[in-house]
Amino acid sequence: MTTDIVVPAEQEGTKAVLKNWLKALGDSVRVDEPLVEIETDKVAVEIAATADGVLAEILVDAGADIEPGTVIGRIAESAAPVERAMRASAGIAIPRPQRDRPDAPHFPPGIRRLLAEHNLDPDTVPVSGDRLSRDDIEAEIARRATATKPAGVGVTVVPHDSMRRRIADHMAQSLRTAPHVTALFEADFSAIIAHRTAHRAAFSDQGANLTFTVYFVAASVAAMKVVPAVNARWYDDRIEIFDDVNVGIGTALGDKGLIVPVIHRAQTLSLIEIAQRLTEITEKARTGSLLPADVRHGTFSISNHGVSGSLLAAPIIINQPQSAILGVGKLQKRAVVREHSGHDSTEIRPMAYVTLTIDHRALDAHQTNAWLTRFVETIENWPR
Which are the contacts of 162, defined by CB distance < 8 A and separation ≥ 6? Predict the structure, then answer.
């Protein structure tokens, strides 16, 4: 009797790739023990065994594109004979699978495509394990690029990993799909700075980091009440407007790219609850411990790109299939003109540019500007 190893039916991201098998053929496995790692442009996740036994079949190699519901391997009962395990335990060498041309049908599609893109003969690629993998090919690409580097020219070749490739695919697909339009406002942060100064220590005592992004989430919820259509998804025959405001927060992973964990049902959370949830998912993102549920079902996204120094970024690519994304630039003290009792005065204020990039199929300028107006009003009039 065998048990199928199946890719989860729900998957967050545009594509998925089988990144790595964590067990070899013939290895013993236990229920809930990680077997294989899959990766999308949004998250890496392990698939665990659903039965005790031995890994009897591997049907999909590392580097292959996979879809939800795909059977990628099988677990046999402990007593079932597994030829590979028996031969290995007897000390008999196991021949490596024959490798053929890049278009050979036994190579997974992802491997065939990578070989073809770089005009590589698989017989010339060193293999680190039992089978040719994406990592083997990328290592050979890097080695050849370094070997052929012109004398006196400094070049560092960094092959794309699977997450970077999927981020690239997702970004390009978004631009192809949606006409992006960006509106620009600016916001005075004086009120939220005063509130943060007064309450930061108390939030910290409750395990919450009171960052500016916490206020951005809360102000976005307020703005959704004015223009619910921003919290929507476009289809060819309809727009679906969601009751739950599930806010994705763009989180940088260094050179690895970006991931967008989600604060679910933000409209039901207090400021301290938003801060606690944001603290939790940010830490999980940076330690690589996000679960699929942590990145699913986002309806709106925020890019706080100002933390890395930029004043303005436009357009910020919409996280498909959402309809809009908020961008917040670097906080900067600027001279602004304020009117008091009929007289103008110049004041130094902590200001930041805020943008809303929309899918123009789903939203128009008046909706975009109304949403940003309420967002800025909420930030600038935050009670102390």
Answer: 17, 19, 39, 63, 134
Residue 61 amino acid letter: D
What was the pLDDT predicted at 114?
Answer: 79
Task: Give catalytic status of residue 360 as yes or no.
Answer: yes
- Kindly tell me the burial class for residue 176, based on how many C-beta atoms sit within 10 Å of its own C-beta (0-12, 13-18, 19 or more): exposed
Indicate the pTM of the whole model.
0.68
Answer yes or no: are the C-beta atoms of 373 and 233 closer than 8 Å.
no
Distance between alpha carbon 219 and the CA centroid of its chain, in Å? 23
Check residue 377 and give left, alpha or beta (phi > 0: left; psi -120 to 50: alpha): alpha
Return the closest-CA partner of residue 358 out of 372, 368, 348: 368
pLDDT (0 to 100) of residue 151: 52
Q: What is the DSSP string of 60-88?
A: S-TT-EE-TT-EEEEEE-TTS--HHHHHH
Cα separation of 95 and 93, whole Å?
Answer: 6
Q: What are phi and psi of 368, to 5 degrees?
A: -60, -45
First to last CA, the chain: 66
Which pair of structure tokens corresponds to residue 148?
């052929």
Measure the CA–CA gap between 335 and 352, rounded to whole angstroms. Answer: 12
Q: In this predicted model, what pLDDT tens digit does every residue of 176-197 receive, in sequence order?
A: 889 999 999 999 999 999 999 9
Residue partners of 79: CB distance under 8 A and separation at least 6: none
Choice among 118, 199, 297, 360 that is catalytic: 360
Per-residue model confidence as pLDDT tens digits over 123-173:
888 887 767 887 788 888 877 776 655 555 667 777 777 677 777 887 888
**pLDDT per position as a tens digit, 183-241:** 999 999 999 999 999 999 999 999 999 999 999 999 999 999 999 999 999 998 999 99
Between vectors from CA 173 to CA 306 and to CA 67, what angle results, nearest 5°? 115
41, 205, 364, 366: which is the annotated catalytic residue?
Answer: 364
Domains of the chain: 2-89 (2.40.50.100), 109-163 (no CATH), 178-380 (3.30.559.10)
Q: Is 364 assigned a catalytic role?
A: yes
